[in-house]
Each structure stands twice: as structure tokens, then as C-alpha cells.
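Task 17 of the worksheet. Students: predict the tertiary structure of the chain below and write it out as C-alpha cells. Keep your answer in the requested format; marks are given for formatting as well as content.
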Amino acid sequence: MRIGVPREVKNQEYRVGLTPAAVAALTARSHTVLVETEAGVGAGFGDGDYAVAGGTIVPTAADAFSADLVVKVKEPLSQEYGWLRPDLILFTYLHLAADRPLTEALIHSKTLAIAYETVQLPNRTLPLLHPMSAIAGRLSVQFGAHYLTKQQGGSGVLLGGIPGVRQGRVVILGGGVVGVEAAKMAVGLGARVQILDVNMARLSELEELFGSRVEFLFSSSVVIAQVVPEADLLVGAVLIPGSRAPKLVAAEVVAAMRPGSVVVDVAVDQGGCVATTQVTSHTQPIHTFGGVLHYGVPNMPGAVPQTATQGLVNVTLPHVLAIADLGVGALERDPALALGVNVRSGQICHPAVAQAFPDLPHAS
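Model answer:
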């Protein structure tokens, strides 16, 4: 099979779909890998590295998209829609429930679109989302602490405080991978941390992990309205696989936060869980509402592309190899991978995406 690796075009997205080691694994099985020139430079991999691994360096994205299987990191942007076609398999993060134009483009093109974020194991874990969620969770506190500094427009609060001065307060909505990793970072900095979740079993598990270092609260609109205004840093870490994120924090609750407080909405990929969140970029990462700084960058792990690329490819490569070897037959052999199919033959296949766009064609 011919596998294409285009250079990412999203704002300051330096990750790449395959590492040279992954290319070597594919070429060892007699597959052809077309790597757009400089696709891996931002992650620390030069064209020469891919050539040594057996890859073929091609000059344009169109050349990479001419392959049978295209492996990316982020969803195609509008300038890439013209390369979508019926005989193409696209394997990447998609987050379609928050992106109607891309959903329509995939339907129109009849591309077989497999989303990393909805590949799901029988125990309901999301193995291809896990490493990026872990990175985003850790970065949420790192970036939040940065934007709390006065020079960045923040309140000037040090999350860890010092003896005689109160700690900063971090409120985390959601006790999944993002929330846990955010809590680890915040606890490590010495902040006062609260995690809110609606799953009591999960809160009990997290109490075993963190003990008294974190306060665990059952999430409700009343509790959110009580604790969020006291937060120096609010981390939105809510995920419903394949679906738009629920709006848990109303605008009036954000308006009650202290000026200079920071919101990092990691759920922005799926529309955000804070009503005042807007999509931003690494170039312009902050927008302000009522004096509260909002960080809404949808490709947060792109800030650490060397770590993120290697972490991502570690989990995607077995599936890439299976698709390259078996084509669509890989979906029949692997039920977890089959759950990653979001659009096929001009129809939405994933129920959460179909629910987001009930007026678009979907498989019955």
C-alpha cells in the first residue's frame, strides 16, 4: 500500500503523523511511504531521516494525499478538502462533532475517515487519545501558571504560594486522563486542587490515588457555580467520546471569577465545556472575557512536538501497519479500530457524530 504523510498546516502544528522508525517498519513490509518534504522538521526529523528509513520524499501535500492511506495528526483544513476522494483512507484526529464543514467535506468526498479519538477498547478506554490527553492535561497547568503571571495579563498569583501566603486554587472539571494529569501537575506545584466529576466510582478511585492532597466534589451546576468563582485556574477536562462537550460553566459563572484568573479549556477540540471559550491558536492563544483570560488552543500538544509525536506514533503504528497490510479488512479484524470509523461511503457512521448532525446522511 502507498501511505502518505503530509506536513501539518494547522497553526504552529509541528507534530507529524509518522516517525522515521515507523516509516522503516512500513517499508520493511514492502509498503511505499510518501513523506512531504519538511513534514517532520518541527518534531526533530529531517527529510534525510525519512529517506534513510526507506521513505520517499515528495515535494507537495498533493503528492502525499495521492496515497491510498493518509496518516496525519490533525484534521484536514479547508485548503486540504480538495484532496479527499472516495478511494482514500484517512487516519487522524477528526473531532467531527464540533466541525460541520469538515464533516460535510468527508461525506461529499466519500473518504473513509477513521478518527483516532473514537478508537475504543472493550473497557471503553481510548488508547489513541490517551497520550495526547496526558500531555494536554500536564500542559494545561503549565500554561495556566504562565498566564497567571502579571506580565501575561494574569492576576499575579503563584499557584504554589509561599509560607504565609495562600496557595493558588485549581479547579478541574472532569476526572479522566486530562483531569488526572492536570491534578498531578497542580499538586506538584503545591496548589490547592479540586476535581469535579459526576462519576462517584471514579472519584473514589482518584481519592485512592491522591488522598487528601486533592478535594473531590460531585459535579452539579450548583457546585460549579460555588467553586469556579474561587478558582485562580479553571481546567476544562470533560470528554464524551465523539460528542460535543457539554457547556458546564455558564458565562455568568465565569464573570464571577476574579479578574486575571485563567481558564484553560482542554475540551475546546470538541467545542469546549466553558460557555465563554473561543477557539484560539498558538500564535494568539488568549482571549479575555470579563477580565478572565481564556486559553482555547485546540492542538495544545503541538507545543511539545518531539514528545507528542513519539507518544502518538507509539499507539497509532500498530493500526497503521494493520491498515497497510489488510486495507479495510483491518476494520473487520479489529472491533476497536472499527469504532474509529466516523464517515464511510458518504455516510456518518459514528453515533455521536450522527447525533450532532441529524440532518446529514448517516448509516442506519
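Marker's comment: The CA atoms of residues 37 and 59 lie 6 Å apart. The mean pLDDT is 97.
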